[in-house]
Write a structure and sequence with these properties.
Layout: E1 17-23, H1 29-38, E2 39-49, E3 63-70, E4 75-81, E5 86-92, H2 101-109, E6 114-121, H3 128-135, E7 144-149, E8 156-158, E9 161-163
Parallel strand pairs: 1-2, 5-6, 6-7
Antiparallel strand pairs: 2-4, 3-4, 8-9
Organism: Cryptotermes secundus
Protein name: Fatty acid synthase pseudo-KR domain-containing protein
Domain Fatty acid synthase pseudo-KR: 97-149
Length: 165
């Protein structure tokens, strides 16, 4: 494959890796912790283990098993590092004024990892879909979400939760 660079480096010096490949890592807690520290949030470990190795990734590690395949003489595990996300910031967007815009800018520019939910209700022509498409192309705006409720009779939104009254 062209454009892919494979390097063999020391894990202790690495950070924000998207993929770490290792053998017999589940049996070595210290190595597993080092790999976890090197991974970016949402990054993966591809582990080659012995067939009889138990999958014990829940012991204090934020790892989830995405894929497990047992072959003739080894077991392959794809483990994903969990993403720590704070409570969402819910911002009500209206087409009548733009008082909400500074709040959106502040939420996106903050360094904390939380979902930002832009909500519009009862305004089917608000343009929020296009706005969110543009915002999501900006650096640091991967956590922006939308809740578009074109009709006002769908429910009431409080704290990111829709209640049907």
């Amino acid at each position: 494959m062209t454009g892919i660079k494979v390097e063999e480096l020391s894990l202790e010096d690495e950070q924000n890796c998207m993929l770490v490949i290792a053998s017999s890592i589940l049996l070595h807690t210290r190595l597993l912790q080092t790999a976890m520290n090197a991974l970016a949030d949402g990054g993966c470990i591809l582990a080659r283990e012995k067939v009889d190795t138990e999958n014990v990734v829940s012991n204090g590690f934020r790892l989830e098993t995405v894929f497990e395949k047992t072959l003739k003489d080894e077991k392959l595990l794809l483990l994903r590092k969990g993403v720590m996300v704070e409570s969402p910031v819910v911002i009500h967007v209206t087409g009548h004024n733009y008082d909400w815009l500074p709040e959106v800018q502040t939420a996106i520019s903050s360094s904390s990892k939380h979902h930002i939910i832009l909500v519009t209700q009862g305004e089917p022509h608000s343009g929020i879909l296009g706005l969110v498409n543009c915002i999501r192309r900006e650096p640091g705006s991967d956590y922006v979400r939308i809740m578009f409720m074109g009709w006002s009779s769908l429910g009431v939104i409080r704290g990111g939760i829709v209640s049907w009254e």
